[in-house]
Amino acid sequence: MNGNERYILEGIIIVLAAAYIFYENVLMSFILSPYVYIHYRQRIKERIVHDKKSFKKKFKDGIIAVSFALNVGYSIENAFGQAVDELTLMYGGDSDIVVKFKHIVIRLGQNENLEDILDDFAEESKVEDIMYFAEIFRYAKRSGGDLMAVIKNTAQIIQQKEEVMSEVDTIISGKKMEQRVMSLIPAVIVIYLKVTAKEFIQPLYGNIAGIIIMTVCLGVYVISDMWAKRIVNIEV
């Protein structure tokens, strides 16, 4: 099962659970089914963010390798070739970053301008820091700036941002766990009441008034959960 299929299955399970917990009627899952798409889109966004963070880290390692090779006297073309070797050791020959850097080396071997290659690389990655690096590199090369310094500074900036983000994640990791637990509490309370005090909660099922009340509760629950996730989602 690939990621997309798993996200759809997760959404279906959530909808079925909500239909039973809040309405005791699985058929209500058809009315709630649009949430499957919402859940799917949210999970896709989370995966994209995760993939971009991972790729940015790999790019930082690649640029550090390029910077080191330049410092010991390699040309730009050979420096990227050395970076491919380093990245292959770190992430494997089939990893996305190795494939991208190999493509850079091939295009450099065809005498293409490095700034054009980096522009295409940045555009494909859709990573803000890489796009910023490509712009600075193009400006530095056109103005006769120190390309080695640009590459070195880019690696340092990405490294610093990564360290800050790591510290932020460490600080709010407990809050994220609290948010997950708090998001489950309303559903757990309803299940607990259904088991231990069914006569108390039963009037909310099987009638229009109960459906309206439960729908309002479910709406507040979903909005609160989305808002809580947004609060703990801090970007650097």
How do you describe this structure in short?
The chain is mainly α.
What is the name of the CATH architecture of the domain at 51-164? Up-down Bundle
Structural class: mainly alpha
Helix content, binned percent:
over 70%
CATH names the topology of the domain at 51-164 as: Receptor-associated Protein
Number of helices: 10
- The chain-level mean pLDDT equals 83
For the CA atoms, what is the radius of gyration?
Answer: 25 Å
Largest sheet: none
- What's the helix-strand series? HHHHHHHHHH
Q: Distance between termini?
A: 33 Å
- Total strands: the figure is 0
The CATH top-level class label of the domain at 51-164: Mainly Alpha
Query: What is the percentage of strand-forming residues?
Result: under 5%
Quaternary status of these chains? Answer: single chain
Unreliable spans: none
- The general outline is elongated
Q: Can you put this structure into words, describing what you see?
A:
Keywords: Membrane, Transmembrane, Transmembrane helix. The chain crosses the membrane at residues 12-38, 203-223. This is Flp pilus assembly protein TadB. The protein is 85% helix and 0% strand. With 236 residues, it is mostly helical. The chain has a domain at 51-164: Receptor-associated Protein (Up-down Bundle), CATH 1.20.81. The protein is elongated. The model has no long low-confidence stretch (mean pLDDT 83).
